[in-house]
Amino acid sequence: MAESLSGTMKRKARRSLVAMAVAATLMGGCATGDTGATEVWDPIETPNRFLFSLNRVVDIIALRPVAVIYRDWVPEPAQKSVRNLLDNLGEPVTAINEVFQGDPNRAATTMARFLVNSTIGVAGLFDVATMLGLERTKEDAGKTIGLYAGVEPENGGFYLMLPLLGPSNARDGTGLMIDYLADPFRILTFNLAVDWTAYQAARYGMNVVDYRSRTIFALDDLEKNSVDYYAALRSAYTQNRADMIRQRREKTDTKGELERRDNLALVR
Amino acid sequence: MSLLAFRRVAMRLAGAALLFVLPALGQSASAADPAQLVQSTAQQVIDIVKNKTGADRQTAILTVLQASFDMPAMGRSALGTNWNKATEEERTRFLKAVASAEARAYSERFGQYAGQTLTVSKVTPRANGVSIVESKLNQATGQPIKIDWEVRGDRITDVKVEGVSMVMTRRSDFNSYIQNHGGKVDALVQELEIRANR
């Protein structure tokens, strides 16, 4: 019963992913110039709002309570270990993205982190690499696309509310799919014929719970202090992602980098 | 040897002096130091959160908001193009409701003081007289939060938390609400007033 249910869900998920990819490529072409830095471009607002309300129902009755219990009842060290484990599994995807972002040094550090944490750090449960001075970075394909797209990072194509995953846009939705397809762990477990579904479900499930538990405060705040939660979240999401991409752009921009070093020198 | 050491100290002092003087030079001489403004405002808020609760806290925070923030400009900016549509009476009512809504939001945001501190890292003066003050809110547990402050003259005009601008988020929020309520500013003002009195 559960097997067939997850089977259909998976198929449905795949179909919607494909549909999204097609939509993203179709719409991506005419995305430029349609949206400014001021207001988020949201041509499919009605379906988005519909999905948003569905997401909120799921969130209120299932996800948020679980996340609250996870945050408040699970001991802090256990949460940290889970976080480390999930981060470690995500490290290869970050490294791949860093290569494509033209930052092989950073990618090498990320892979070094992965190797150290997977071995000395007991399969990623302990973040030994950070103690050794290898700092963690998190990159995704949405940011990689944003880095090269010749538009303001506020312009990520049309706004998109993903079922269960929440706010996104054409750029980040496409990125999510690329990351999913490029994930070595997904490919590896598939090829080794490990029980794929259980592993994937556990990993993505934990990721969702962990992520939700860390956003409880911010999202509750946003909901309480907005008159139109959907619009406020749309704006906040877009700005937050744009800020991340802008940081990446500034980092690759040598003038900005030199400026940063000058400031550091002054502080010393 | 001692001369060398002295020179090094002198250089450092000069460097430190430069660090404090440079941001100040970026704008008019009369304006207060933006970093100082941000630091003292944050300290005031932290003190209020530490010592006051409930309605006391809300009024104290409202005082700080009105003293250090340019609330009329922020409110006006948050209303965007709808500001021009609004009548004079709606504008005053709107500004009042927004100020109390913000005070309420801030006083509820930090339930109890949990050892947060604010460190100002960098001040970037812009050509249009606005300075961006970058800072980090250090928490007892977890990652520090990136907060950027926009300062014009001797007032704060915007706060960006992890890149999310308060004014811009409010603008989308308010604009969408107005659009969905027949384009009437009055609907928004009424909603804000109801929320303020709740």
Q: In words, what does this structure look like?
A:
The complex is a heterodimer of chains A (about 270) and B (about 200). In chain A, strands 1-2 form a two-stranded antiparallel ribbon. Chain A is globular, with a radius of gyration of 20 Å. Chain A has 11 helices and 2 strands. In chain A, about 75% of the residues lie in helices and about 5% in strands. By secondary structure, chain B is of the alpha+beta class. Chain B is about 60% helix and about 20% strand. In chain B, strands 1-2-3-4-5 form a 5-stranded antiparallel β-sheet. The longest helix of chain B is centred in the N-terminal third of the chain and has 24 residues. Classes of the chains: A mainly alpha (about 270), B alpha+beta (about 200). Chains A and B meet through helix 9, helix 10 and helix 11 of A and helix 1, helix 6, strand 5, helix 7 and helix 8 of B.
Properties at a glance:
heterodimer; A: 268 residues; mainly alpha; 3% strand; disordered C terminus; B: 198 residues; alpha+beta; five-stranded antiparallel sheet; 18% strand
- Report on the biggest sheet of chain B: 5 strands, antiparallel
Helix-strand pattern of chain B, N to C? HHHHHHEEEEEHH
Evaluate the radius of gyration of chain A. 20 Å
Supply the helix-strand structural class of chain B: alpha+beta
Low-pLDDT segments, ≥5 res of chain A = 21-37, 264-268
The strand line-up of the biggest sheet of chain A is 1-2
Number of helices of chain B: 8
In percent, how helical is the residue content of chain A? over 70%
Overall mean pLDDT of chain B: 82
* General shape of chain A: globular
Unreliable stretches covering 5 or more consecutive residues of chain B:
21-30
The helix tally of chain A amounts to 11
Q: Roughly how much helix do the residues of chain B carry, as a percent range?
A: 55-70%
Query: Could you give the distance between the termini of chain B?
Result: 70 Å
Q: How far is the N terminus from the C terminus of chain A?
A: 64 Å
Could you state the oligomeric state of the chains shown? heterodimer
